[in-house]
Amino acid sequence: MHNIKGVRGAPDILPQKSSRWQRIEEVARAALRRYGYAEIRTPVFERTEVFIRGIGEGTDIVEKEMYTFTDQGQESLTLRPEATAPVVRAYLEHQMAAQSALVKVYYLGPMFRRERPQSGRYRQFHQIGVEAIGSHQPAVDAEVIDLLWKLMVEEFRIPGLELRLNSIGDVACRPEIRERILRYMRDRASELCTDCQGRLGRNPLRILDCKQEGCQRLVAGAPKPLESLCEACADHFAQVRSLLDLLKIPYTVDDRLVRGLDYYTRTAFEVVNPRLGAQNALAGGGRYDGLIEVMGGPPTPGIGFAIGLERVMASIPAEADAQTSLDGVYVATIGQEAHRTGMLLLQELRRRGVRGLIDLEGRSLKGQMRQANKDRVRYCLILGEDELAKGHATLRDMAKAEEQSVPLDHVVARLLELEGERTG
């Protein structure tokens, strides 16, 4: 009888790795709160029409990558491949515009796409993202990009990142942008990859996003969206750039940058890590001023981004794990009475907010000390018959390799004091 294995492209996150994920999620939540974003949690599946209407029928995601199924009620449902369309669905359904003119929300969780598993691409992957819905103002674009850059550089501490920025126009100038690219590409259609030949009729802008080498060579000589911006879009982009300069956010204008989804307008941006190779985009986003209308609502502007957590994890330097600080206390005991006393002390410490561990398997003292090292605790509290007889416990600082004797009735207060000094 063989063991059942997990699905390829949907890796397990084991306990020895999950602490890294928790650290990233915790610092992200704290930063998002500081910027005025509140969490929204949408279901991991939606009616399929949410994504067909929201993402675009001719996109790769809708055509090739969605996990779609029919449930017992004969309703077509899809595991979410991205979160902007579900957030917009919730925004409209719950009339969130009535609560605030500018709605600022963030989300965190798994997404699903049936892609060929490879480095940096998974079938179940995780994102942190934000949506700011309700304002055309360039200041909103600047704040969203500032938030993304702060998360990536200051909170996640990833070195060597690049921010790329572009504007891809709006309903006023997009037809001309599209037509110029279409004319250029149509004359060279035989040199395009099969996917891009299909994009010619549906959305020629997306050819600029193709990673195939042959298409990239053609893209190098293609008309640039920035050359055909209307006055309003050009002014909007200039104001966004001016505010980013004010905030000292370093960026490069990438006139080939378009996002892979149909709903983007005006500002588009990506954060890339050149060290990751082909799959080097860690985060991306942009404006989607037409999406709410497509989803059945009134004309409403919006902007957001999504961060790929798996790629963030691959970008965090290895030494960041080694720097994880020692934390909490391990109660090492010898004998049944000492173990009972240790459990009472541990209960009080845990109730006071201290991470506390104790041997539950009858290990020797040497085995318990080995386990304490493995659990990366800062302090070890040693209790045996001698300690109980004297009414004291031995407290060992595992980082400094120093010991002190502490009266049993002062142990909790002393540990709380030390933990406060260490984290204060």
Can you tag this structure with a few keywords?
single chain; 424 residues; alpha+beta; BirA Bifunctional Protein, domain 2; Rossmann fold; 2 domains; 8-stranded mixed β-sheet; 5-stranded mixed β-sheet; 16 helices
What does this structure look like?
It is built from 16 helices and 16 strands. By secondary structure, it is α+β, with helices and mostly antiparallel strands. The protein has 2 domains: 15-173 and 229-319, BirA Bifunctional Protein, domain 2 (2-Layer Sandwich); 325-419, 3-Layer(aba) Sandwich (Rossmann fold), CATH 3.40.50.800. The strands form 3 sheets. The chain has an 8-stranded mixed beta sheet with strand order 1-5-6-11-10-9-7-8. A 5-stranded mixed beta sheet has the order 13-12-14-15-16, with helices on both faces. A 3-stranded antiparallel beta sheet has the order 2-4-3. α13 links the parallel β12 (329-333) and β13. The radius of gyration is 27 Å and the shape is elongated. The model has no long low-confidence stretch (mean pLDDT 89).
